[in-house]
Design goal:
By secondary structure, the chain is α/β, with parallel strands linked by helices. The protein has 17 helices and 17 strands. The strands form 3 sheets. It has a 9-stranded mixed β-sheet, sandwiched between helices. A 6-stranded parallel β-sheet has the order 14-13-12-15-16-17, with helices on both faces. The protein has a two-stranded antiparallel ribbon with strand order 8-9. The chain starts with a strand and ends with a helix.
């Protein structure tokens, strides 16, 4: 198959979050399986040009219809760690992608509406005819809309679209100006409830809703999150739309890159290891204590890696620090606060705990240190309020670090409680799960994990090995997406 990914990110050249990792990792897996994949991206001024090999002019004269006129664009081509990428650069006074940041401007909806239009215009003008377009999140929600309302009649009639939603919270909204700019125009038609009109604000169009309505198949990034978005509050108002299109909606668990996250060949850690030689993991633990000035003692290390914000259950992260100390464990945190109040709260805690030999708080992000923490910690807490997929717990499992997670989203699909899981036999369970958002629920799960570490060390080691035996690479999701593509191609 010939697959074109249209996205606003692709790691490592453009990465603001997990979206970039998915676009890169999935594209790589599809190519390993023998498919042809190309990626279309905006040409941001602030992207990591040092990760592009052989950047050159690919298509100098792309004329994109816009507001009844045209915007001239150049399309560049280069390889990002082996993936073939096309970068669209518009030449206009709007400077859509010369802003110094990827997101965060008042006209983001117009910027990405233009990008979606330009990507389709490039396919049409250059003669590219993919079997499947795979687009992602609200930024490309208008791609299936414009494909089936405009470009279908200009040579792209056989193209099918898979649309993946990574974050329902950000949906992209616009008004009649979006219709005029893109050439969709017909206001009464698109403001119909069963097309683009927002489910709660009748005066705006919803990009993500358009993507759901018009695409051939819609996915989100874990099976459990698909259920949450459909029937719970995590669809952020799109639950009814998902219900109307449930026949083409499913959850496909993200994978992680096992070339990057692999304790057997990780160059960021001093001692490589696998499930057969966990003694080497203990040497990484010693190196972690040396690096962070923790005292060397016979205590488990509990870690947290991730953003410090409400989504990640920051109140439970904070409580876990003190409960770990209370239960005679050590605690390591590596995280970036996302707002001023949380930053001041955790800086206060860092100063307060600075002389405690059993705790280290690192406020910020450090890729190298994250690898050492995964390798050196015994347990990893992920107490998220919501978590569409979650990578932390999958990486932790890979490194023999037992996850303690809240039972939401992709965490439910990847971590199976050692004591209470009813779907897996004891020898296939891999962590601890709690469900409520109160302190007692977190304490109960931490208590069971710490108790096993102290009183049944051989059973704790068995739990580590069981976690390391799981395959959360792109292997399974790659196959899932190939089956989805084949299905929509032959509908």
């Amino acid at each position: 198959m010939y697959i074109v990914q249209i996205a606003s990110e692709c790691a490592p050249v453009i990465k603001a979050g997990g979206l970039g990792d998915v676009v890169y990792g999935l594209s790589r897996e599809l190519e390993i399986r023998g498919h042809t994949v190309e990626i279309i991206l905006p040409k941001y001024d602030c992207m990591r040009y040092d990760h592009i090999w052989g950047l050159h002019d690919a298509y100098k004269d792309l004329q994109v219809p816009w507001y009844g006129s045209e915007i001239h664009c150049s399309v560049y081509c280069g390889w990002v760690h082996g993936r073939l990428c096309f970068f669209i650069e518009p030449h206009s006074q709007d400077s859509f992608f010369d802003r110094g940041i990827y997101y965060g401007h008042n006209d983001d909806n117009m910027r990405f509406a233009f990008f979606s239009k330009a990507a389709l215009q490039f396919l049409q003008q250059s003669g590219k005819r993919p079997d499947v377009i795979h687009c992602h999140d609200w930024q490309t929600g208008l791609v299936p809309v414009m494909l089936y309302e405009i470009y279908k009649w200009h040579g792209l009639g056989n193209v099918r679209v898979c649309y993946t939603i990574h974050n329902f919270k950000h949906q992209g909204i616009g008004g009649t100006d979006i219709l005029q700019a893109t050439g969709l125009n017909r206001e009464d038609y698109y403001f119909e409830y069963d097309r683009l009109r927002d489910n709660f604000n009748p005066f705006v169009l919803n990009f993500m809703k358009g993507g759901i309505v018009y695409s051939n198949h819609v996915t989100t990034v874990s099976p459990h999150h698909a259920w949450e978005a459909h029937v719970g509050e995590f669809g952020y108002g799109l639950g009814h739309t998902l219900h109307m299109h449930q026949h083409k909606f499913s959850g496909v668990l993200n994978g992680i890159d096992y070339d990057v996250w692999n304790p057997e060949m990780d160059h960021y850690i001093p001692y490589q290891f696998n499930q057969d030689d966990l003694e080497q993991k203990a040497l990484n633990q010693k190196a972690l204590r040396d690096r962070l000035w923790l005292q060397h003692s016979d205590k488990p290390i509990i870690a947290y890696i991730g953003r410090l914000d409400d989504q990640k259950g920051v109140h439970l992260v904070h409580h876990a620090i003190y409960y770990a100390l209370h239960r005679n464990a050590q605690f390591v945190l590596l995280g970036s606060p996302t707002e001023a109040g949380i930053a001041s709260w955790f800086w206060h805690e860092k100063n307060f705990l600075n002389d405690n030999p059993d705790v280290h708080l690192e406020l910020g992000f450090n890729e190298e240190l994250s690898h050492l923490i995964y390798a050196g910690a015994d347990m990893m807490i992920v107490p998220s309020n919501f978590e569409p997929c979650g990578l932390t717990q999958m990486i932790g499992l890979r490194y023999g670090t037992v996850p303690i997670v809240r039972g939401v989203g992709g965490l439910v699909n990847t971590v199976f409680d050692r004591d209470y899981d009813q779907t897996h036999p004891l020898e296939e369970r891999n962590g601890y799960v709690f469900y409520q958002t109160d302190y007692q629920a977190l304490e109960s799960a931490m208590d069971r994990a710490i108790g096993l570490w102290y009183h049944y060390p051989e059973e704790f080691k068995a739990l580590q090995i069981q976690g390391m035996n799981y395959d959360y690479s792109w292997n399974h999701p790659g196959q899932d997406y190939v089956e989805i593509y084949e299905h929509i191609r032959h509908k």
